[in-house]
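One such shown below:
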Amino acid sequence: MATRAPLSLKARAIGLLAQREHSRAELRRKLLRIEQQRRQRARLAAAQAAGEGEPSAAVEEEDGAEDVAVAVDALLDALAATGYLDETRFVESRLHLRANRFGAQRIQQELAQHGLKLGAEQQAALRETEMERAREVWRRRFGDDPSRDAAERARQSRFLLARGFAPEVVRRLLRA
């Protein structure tokens, strides 16, 4: 039984991008981990083939980490130049996925974790539709009948605030 050669770093990156859009920072983190694991397995296999136990690779890892980071950054630049990696497409994709379930604050916070921001037009569009989106999320979770109980309204308010809807929107929604 022949073993297949491992996929190249570029093939791995394109495979990840084929599954869904990634931000540059997210793809970089994943590729660094994949390449470091591949190199660690290769060192372990070489040490076992040479009849040694565990390799002592503390010095090798420091040198190898810089080489891996340079190779991954060059690959990401090439992917961005050819259009495979596009952060505006990632923002639009994330916005499309999250807008029906989360408020503008939560979406902006999630994008900030990737080192990205919403454009002014996208922010305005989110703010304009926030009340309708909050109402739909509230209706799906709690039904159409508003609660008269203060404790239940507080629970509903916490739920909507945790979803990233603006406090003023939550207050107006629960008053109506």
